[in-house]
Design brief:
Blueprint: E1 5-10, H1 17-30, E2 37-42, H2 45-54, E3 60-64, H3 81-84, E4 90-93, H4 96-101, H5 106-118, E5 122-127, H6 131-135, H7 139-151, H8 156-159, E6 163-166, H9 180-198, H10 200-205, E7 207-211, H11 219-223, E8 230-233, H12 240-257
Parallel strand pairs: 1-2, 1-8, 2-3, 3-4, 4-5, 5-6, 6-7, 7-8
This protein binds phosphoenolpyruvate.
């Protein structure tokens, strides 16, 4: 059975508990139930519990923005996937902001991915090159290294549920998304890596998202790219009207591709 398209809202370190609740209530009212789109919200850890009580579960699922790779122990300040599993279906792993500001290594990301899978949480693995890496023609190598290391402890069965998000670092928080041609080439390469490592079945089962300055006006163009199964949205997901328009755009693009 064809998996639904996926739209993920990454609310990063924005919104307190009250403001998150206001946004969730607006989304509950505004977003229709589309059978061909799965919508996932990633609020801060603090809001996961209250949001889980507030969302219309027919329309929304929850994701953690990160998690620690150990299941339990004396790790002050950390939150494990075994604690998160009661609340979330998904977790964003290896976001470029985690790599950049928190020094997350490829090995750490691999361990987080395994911890997610061990705990029944579907990982959304973010990969993407910086501006400098693109300028120096290193995009393919960077994507290869990020994917090969991150997936190295997973079986082909684990891989079938995986979500990969192509997020060129230079397109995050930018004026506009990467050009369709650029996304197309990167997604092709990402899918090729998965096929080489785990075979055709794994490659055709994964979902690949694009993330980086998504806005409603760009949705149709991005969703036309072969091999794209949805979007990871930052800024625009903090505005309930824009986010709702993005979800509708993904829904419509799914209908026209049927
Ligand atoms: C992100 O950080 O994952 C992201 C896609 O952000 P933005 O949409 O704000 O570029």
């Amino acid at each position: 059975m064809k998996k639904p398209q996926l739209v993920v809202a990454n609310w990063k370190m924005y919104l307190n508990i009250h403001d998150t609740s206001v946004l969730v209530n607006r989304l509950n009212k505004k977003v229709p139930l589309y059978r061909n789109v799965e919508v996932v919200l990633a609020p801060s850890y603090l809001s996961l519990q209250p949001v889980s009580m507030e969302i219309d579960h027919r329309k929304f699922r929850l994701a953690a923005q990160d998690g620690y790779f150990k299941d339990e122990g004396a790790y002050t300040g950390a939150i494990s996937f075994s604690q998160l599993r009661e609340l979330v279906n998904y977790a964003i792993i290896g976001h470029s902001e985690r790599r950049r500001y928190f020094g997350e290594s490829l090995d750490e990301i691999r361990d987080k991915l395994s911890a997610c899978v061990r705990n029944g949480i579907t990982p959304i693995l973010c990969v993407g090159e910086t501006k400098q890496e693109r300028t120096q023609n290193e995009t393919k190598q960077v994507l290869h290294d990020q994917i090969v290391t991150a997936l190295s402890d997973l079986t082909s069965e684990d891989i079938e549920n995986l979500v990969l998000a192509y997020e060129p670092v230079w397109a995050i928080g930018a004026d506009e998304p990467a050009k369709p041609d650029t996304i197309d080439k990167a997604v092709d390469w990402i899918r090729y890596q998965v096929r080489e490592l785990y075979g055709q079945k794994a490659e055709s089962s994964i979902r690949v998202l694009y993330g980086g300055s998504d806005e409603p006006e760009y949705v149709a163009g991005i969703m036309e790219i072969p091999g794209i199964n949805g979007l990871l949205v930052g800024r625009a997901s903090l505005n309930f009207e824009e986010f709702s328009d993005i979800i509708t755009g993904v829904h419509l693009s799914g209908l026209s591709n049927e």
